[in-house]
Amino acid sequence: xxxxxxxxxxxxxxADQMAAPALPVYGHPVVKAPKLQALAEAxxxxxxxxxxxxxxxxxxxxxxxxxxPSRIGAYDNAAEFPASVPTFLHYLRxxxxxxxxxxxxxxxxxxxxxxxxERLTSDIYPADFGWxxxxxxxxxxxxxxxxxxxxxxxxxxxxxLQIDFDDxxxxxxxxxxxxxxxxADERPxxxxxxxxxxxxxxxxxPEYWGRYDHVAIDLPSVPAIPYAERDPHSRRLxxxxxxxxxxxxxxxxxxxRHAYYGAISYVDDRVGELLRALEATGLSDDTLVVFTxxxxxxxxxxxxxxxxxxxxxxxxxPLIVYAPGRFAPRRVARHVxxxxxxxxxxxxxxxxxxxxxxxxxxxxxxxxxxxxSAWGDDTVYGEYLAEGSISPLLMVRHGRYKYVxxxxxxxxLYDLEADPQELHNLAGQGDFRALxxxxxxxxxxxxxxxxxxxLTEHVILSQKRRRLVGEALLRGRSNAWDFAPRLNExxxxxxxxxxxxxxxxxxxxxPRTAAPAPDAA
Length: 521
Hints:
Mean pLDDT: 93
Number of strands: 17
Largest sheet: 8 strands, mixed
Number of helices: 15
């Protein structure tokens, strides 16, 4: 079987809150990520890739399912991911792949596998309904929500929660690659490793802080926009993370960006460990590597932080596909979405399994193979349905334009070729009426007025249900949904109930040796 037709192993690497504009792959002049740069130079780089929702759990659920958040109830960071929703893990497993997970996945609800045969680590965030927002009480103080202390307190640290988590995530994934290479299971594998860096808080160890000259850390290209001049959604986000409670100085901003850049370098080193493990195990030639982020980070641009908006730093993600024996290195300018990953993975896995319901994405294979003419309409869509909003916030990215709609707010329309920093809202301007109608028609074709009204009702009802259930489940004896890895101690090392000592040691050796024949003498 040729390399082009053989079903590849697939290693999907994801970094949390990784803004595409912050990577040297996409032109950042300060950040150091040589492993990702090398991966990009030998791979296919998507220059205009978007998440389906700029928030952790909805972004991940929609990517796993190939469907917009509203279609699967993935409204916010406490929305349950239903066990009945097929994910790319289910499809790949049905196609004969062995499937495993490591790191952060932010699954909410009792199902903590969603098609994976094995999960190697717990999660860093809770799996219950405790982080449910309320659109009916938008001014409610949310104890679990972001606040600007992570910017005020940004800087180097010796150790923190995220370093503990990602060190374990990387270690378990490297070991898993060795286990896969030693296994007698001949099925191709899919392994997803998901790091929590460079997500805030903006802290990093002295090793990675020291890789950067503090004076050279760039300040945002767009300074803070005065509160009264911001769009209504940006004002709501400002209020949500209590920006008025802190005076954010240039030094605070530089510290936060310095730590974020160091965290990118930390992730880059972990990517290097994974790639070295592929080489050492002999798996590299048969393994396709995908790198992405779940969403971005505003990182002080416009005076905004974190994500939760449809500005480019928040919603545009890195996407690199590395398979040098299969796809020639190239840059792809067409707009693509995380929603496209599920149909792409199905096709790479050999296809032959039609999705059981309509998907909101399409296979990237034509673009991976350099046939942009086969891609068709160049439009992607996004939804934001969580805290900081009071009704659905919707995005259409089409050609050179981006259109953002919320029933409660004035529309936003940007020409990203002429105005890449999104400073000039063209909506409502006479010369752009026809263009605005065209973009509004694209939005209406995806979400009709009746569907938008129904979605608002569904979100509010879901919030009410989850807040009641979540509070009730905290009373009395708690039965947490958080994933706890179960180790099979009987089969990990040397045990008397398993094979002989020599056989155990021989099976664990890579490369494996054959048992020597008995000495005839």
